[in-house]
Write a structure and sequence with these properties.
- The chain is 70% helix and 1% strand.
- With 570 residues, it is mostly helical.
- It has a domain at 270-462 and 527-570.
- A two-stranded antiparallel sheet has the order 1-2.
- The longest helix has 32 residues, at 156-187.
- It is globular, with a radius of gyration of 23 Å.
C-alpha cells in the first residue's frame, strides 16, 4: 500500500495540468478540482490509518534510500496531511459556492484552479518527503503558486502585498538553499534518516551554523518574531478563501519543518533557549499587534502570528509531551484559523467591509453567522473543553515537567496571550455583532461611516454556510475525540525520533536496501521492540494524565524516547 504516498502529490499535479486546458469550461474545471482533492483526502485518511501500525516508505523511481528520493509517511506526516486536505477541500467548496472563482474582476477562473491544485500538491509534498532537497522543492512549489494566488485580480493592494510577499519568500528560499548546500557539503546526503546519523559525526560548530540557517529559513516561513512583519501586510488583501488557506496551511509548513528538524535531525542541539525566547516574543508581540487593529483580517493575521508562538513553546520544551502538544495545537490551529478567516469573508460579504468601525448588528441580521463566529473564536481563546484549551493544557503540563524559569516564563506569556486573545475576539463580537448602527456611527467618527446593512444575509450561498459549518463541525469533533487524537500525536512524536525513523527508512541494520552501512557508531541510538512498546504505553499514560488528571500538573520523569536536550532552558 506504499504507492498511496504518491497519490496526494501526483493527483493534484495531474489535475492542475488538466484544468489548465479546461479554462473555458468552468463547471468541468471546478468538478475536476473538487473531485481530485476529495480523492486525495480519502487516500490521506487511508494513509493515516496505515501509519498508526507502521511507517510507510515509498522509494520514488525505485531508487532506494538514501540515494533516491523517499516519500515517508509516519504519524506526524499523516495527521498533518489529513488536516491540510480537510482544509483544502472545505476552502475550495467555499470558493466555488461563493462565486469567487468565476468573477473575473476578482479571480480569473482559468488561473485559480490549476494554481490552487499546484499549491495543494506542494503542501502535500512538503509533509510527505523524507529528503531535505525534496522538502525545498515542495516549499518552492507552494510558494510559486501562492505568488499567483495572492496577486490574482491585479488590484493595487494585492500587487503591493504580493511584492512584499515575494521579496520575503525569495530571501527565505535563498537562505534555505544556502543551508542545503552547507548540509550536503558537510554530510554528503539529503536523506533525513541518513542525516540524523551523519550530523553526529561533523564539527559541532558547523552543525550549529547549518541548524541556524534552517531555523531562520523555516522561521521566516512560519512567521515567528522577529521574522513575521511581512504577514499582516500580505495575507489580508487576498480574497477570503485564499487568505484562509494561506493562514491555515502555509505557516504550518514552516512549523512542521522546525519540528521535524529539531526532533529528527538536530535532537541534541542546545538551541532550546533561543526557541523559548522566540516563542515568548512571538506570542506577546503578535497579540499586542492584534489589540491595536481595527480591521478584522489584519487583527486575525496578528493572532495567527501570536499563536504560532504556542507551537514554538512546545517545541522549545524538548520533551515528548511538549512536542506532542505542539503537533496537537498545530492541527487545532489549522482548522480554527481557517474557519475564522472564512467567517471574516462572510462578514465582509454581508457588511461590505471588514472594518470594526463600519460593521454592526450582524447578530441581528444573521444569528447563524454569530454562532459560526463564536465557536472558532472561543476555540482560539482556549475555552474548555475545546481543542484550544486541551492543547494549552498539554503545553502547561509539559512546562511543569520541564520546571525551569524560562519554561515558566513561556507559560506566563501563553496566559497573557490567551487573555488578550479573549479581549480581541470579544472586541470583534461587541463591535460587529452586538452594537447597533448608531453606536457604530459614533465609534467610527467622521472618517468612516457605518454601513447600512439591510438583511443581506440571503446573498451568502448555502455552500458557503456548509463549507464553514463543516470546518466548525470538524473542530468540535476534534474536541470530542481529543483523547485518541492526543494519544496519536504522542505516538507520532515517538515515531519520528531518530531510532524509529532510521529503522523505517533505512532498515534494521542501517542499510538502505543494499546501500552500504552508514555509521556503526550510531547503532546505539536504535531502540529494541520492548522499548518501543514501553514508549507507546508511556504516551497513553501521558494522555490520560493530561485529559483526566489535569489539575495535578505533576512533572513526570520520562516522556517516552524523546531526549530532553542539553541545557536547562534557564
Amino acid at each position: 500500500m506504499n504507492f498511496l504516498l504518491a497519490l496526494p502529490v501526483l493527483l493534484p499535479l495531474l489535475a492542475a495540468a488538466l484544468t489548465l486546458g479546461l479554462g473555458r469550461h468552468y463547471r468541468i474545471q471546478s468538478a475536476v478540482a473538487f473531485v481530485t482533492l476529495s480523492l486525495s483526502l480519502i487516500f490521506a485518511l487511508a494513509i493515516l490509518g496505515l501509519t498508526d501500525k507502521a511507517t510507510l516508505v515509498l522509494d520514488v523511481g525505485s531508487w532506494a534510500a538514501p540515494i533516491g528520493i523517499s516519500l515517508v509517511a509516519d504519524r506526524l506526516a499523516a495527521i498533518m496531511l489529513c488536516t491540510s486536505l480537510v482544509v483544502m477541500v472545505a476552502v475550495l467548496a467555499y470558493s466555488l459556492s461563493e462565486g469567487t472563482v468565476h468573477e473575473s474582476q476578482d479571480i480569473p477562473t482559468p488561473i485559480f484552479h490549476p494554481t490552487y491544485l499546484v499549491l495543494c500538491a506542494g503542501v502535500n509534498n512538503a509533509f510527505l518527503t523524507g529528503d531535505m532537497f525534496n522538502l525545498y522543492v515542495g516549499v518552492e512549489i507552494l510558494l510559486t503558486s501562492s505568488f499567483v494566488l495572492i496577486t490574482l485580480g491585479g488590484t493595487r493592494d494585492r500587487i503591493r502585498s504580493g511584492t512584499v510577499y515575494v521579496a520575503v519568500s525569495m530571501v527565505g528560499s535563498a537562505i534555505f538553499l544556502v543551508a542545503l548546500a552547507s548540509l550536503y557539503g558537510a554530510c554528503g546526503t539529503m536523506n533525513m534518516a541518513q542525516l540524523s546519523m551523519r550530523l553526529t559525526e561533523i564539527d559541532p560548530a558547523v552543525a550549529m551554523l547549518i541548524q541556524t540557517l534552517f531555523l531562520v529559513a523555516f522561521g521566516l516561513k512560519a512567521a515567528v518574531f522577529p521574522l513575521s512583519a511581512w504577514l499582516p501586510d500580505s495575507y489580508p488583501t487576498a480574497p477570503a478563501p485564499i487568505t484562509a488557506v494561506f493562514a491555515g496551511l502555509l505557516t504550518k509548513v514552516g512549523v512542521y519543518a522546525i519540528i521535524r528538524m529539531q526532533v529528527l535531525i538536530f535532537p541534541t542541539s542546545p538551541v532550546d533557549v533561543v526557541l523559548a525566547i522566540v516563542g515568548i516574543l512571538t506570542m506577546i508581540v503578535g497579540i499586542l499587534g492584534a489589540v491595536a487593529q481595527d480591521d478584522i483580517k489584519r487583527l486575525l493575521s496578528f493572532t495567527l502570528v501570536s499563536h504560532i508562538g504556542f507551537m514554538i513553546w512546545g517545541i522549545s520544551l524538548a520533551n515528548t509531551l511538549g512536542i506532542a502538544s505542539a503537533v496537537f495545537y498545530a492541527v487545532h490551529h489549522i482548522l480554527v484559523q481557517t474557519t475564522l478567516f472564512l467567517v471574516a469573508g462572510m462578514m465582509e460579504k454581508i457588511g461590505g467591509s471588514t472594518s470594526l468601525r463600519r460593521l454592526h448588528s450582524l447578530a441581528k441580521i444573521s444569528p447563524l453567522l454569530a454562532i459560526w463566529y463564536l465557536i472558532p473564536a472561543f476555540n482560539l481563546v482556549g475555552f474548555p473543553p475545546l481543542t484550544g484549551f486541551l492543547g494549552k493544557l498539554g503545553l502547561a503540563e509539559a512546562t511543569a515537567a520541564r520546571n525551569t524559569p524560562l519554561a515558566w516564563a513561556l507559560l506566563a506569556a501563553g496566559l497573557v496571550a490567551s487573555l488578550l486573545t479573549l479581549y480581541v475576539v470579544v472586541k470583534i463580537w461587541l463591535q460587529t455583532f452586538w452594537q447597533g448602527r448608531e453606536s457604530a456611527q459614533e465609534s467610527g467618527g467622521e472618517e468612516e461611516e457605518a454601513v447600512d446593512t439591510l438583511n443581506p444575509a440571503a446573498r451568502i450561498p448555502r455552500g458557503v454556510w456548509a463549507a464553514t459549518g463543516f470546518l466548525t463541525a470538524v473542530t468540535i469533533g476534534l474536541s470530542v475525540f481529543a483523547g485518541p487524537v492526543y494519544t496519536f500525536t504522542e505516538r507520532a512524536t515517538i515515531s519520528m525520533t531518530r531510532a524509529e525513523y532510521q529503522r523505517a527508512v533505512l532498515g534494521e541494520d542501517g542499510r538502505g536496501h543494499g546501500i552500504s552501512k552508514l555509521s556503526s557508531g550510531n547503532r546505539e541510538d536504535f531502540l529494541n521492540e520492548d522499548g518501543n512498546q514501553a514508549d507507546t504505553a508511556a504516551a497513553e499514560t501521558t494522555t490520560k494524565s493530561v485529559l483526566f488528571d489535569a489539575l495535578s500538573l505533576s512533572p513526570r520523569k520520562s516522556y517516552g524516547s524523546l531526549p530532553v536536550r542539553g541545557g536547562s532552558n534557564d
